Amino acid sequence: MTQKIIIDCDPGVDDAVAILMALTSPEVEVLGVTTNVGNVSLYKTQLNARRVCEVAGRLDMKVFAGCPRSLFNRFAPESVEDTAYTAADIHGESGLGGSKLPAPTMPLQDEHAVNFIIRTLENSTGDIIMVCTGALTNMATALIMSPQIAAKIQKIVLMGGAIGLGNITPAAEYNFYCDPEAAHVVFTSKIPIVMFGLDVTRQTEFDKKWVDEIEALNSPVAQALVDILSDAFKPGAYAEPGTKGTGKVLHDVNCIAYLINPSLYEGRNVYVEIDTSDTINSGRSTVDWWNKIGKEPNALVMNKVKHEAFFALLTERISRYPKFQKSANGTL
Ligand code: BDR
Ligand code: CA
Predict the structure, then answer these.
(1) Of 32, 164, 213, 239, which sits 20 to 30 A from 288 (CA to CA)?
(2) Domain range for 145
(3) Could you tell me if residue 330 is inside a domain?
(4) pTM of the entire structure?
(5) Which residues are the signal sequence here (predicted)?
(6) What's the pLDDT at 329?
């Protein structure tokens, strides 16, 4: 059965791969793509979402820009074209690594992302899944503006947090660190949550051999993906802490892979609390893995993924994009 989803993201290299995977997967129907400030500014994340949809041939996809800053103003940029905090060291200045994708021609929707989320959920029968792969600012703002939508969300499948150590501070993972209060709003909402934290996403490391496999698919999308990922292998490129191999990780893609094939994953229903203190623990997700305090579980927290099956699925979904067209004289 097709699952209706809204992808709320901050593309972002791995967000981009997640969008590309979703758009060739009949198991999900993408109702819209909404963006937050996150890896780069709001201006760049909405631009990147459109660049990615466009190379995928989905000029009909509706892309919305959302919140330009976090709820409590932790990282308040001067404008939507700016960000007071950025992961450009990982995702590149543009946010799409070594991408050569042109500026998009498809329009940005006029409606604010949060209004789109609220309107779409209100008009739904309760069957929509929110896929959140950036800071949770848009999602939390929607819940604050219209608390009644909580009952309309089937579940929130998100990338963020960790059972173990963080990647931006000793305690926190990047998405939750960027907006801890928003994560707190989501985790106290009583909406079913499936959490892909660093413990599981760090198991989806890719290497140059896999990128070569993607290149061999010989399509505009495959080439775009190769370019986007190319910065990861430059000397001195970022390596995700706590990984065992290349340190190049496709965090956000796990949310989509899970919706296509949940049997790739193992996890546990547990209680999770977000630290909103202004301390070294800011943005930390404390996961009661051993049920030490007996609180009602509020999330299914994943901790294992079948690595080979994950990459086989991703490669197969990217292979569904049309190949480069040969011209009459046989050239590409
Ligand atoms: C998360 O942070 C971002 O840099 C990635 O896109 C991912 O969503 C990983 O911590
Ligand atoms: Ca992301």
Answers:
(1) 239
(2) 3-318
(3) no
(4) 0.96
(5) none
(6) 67
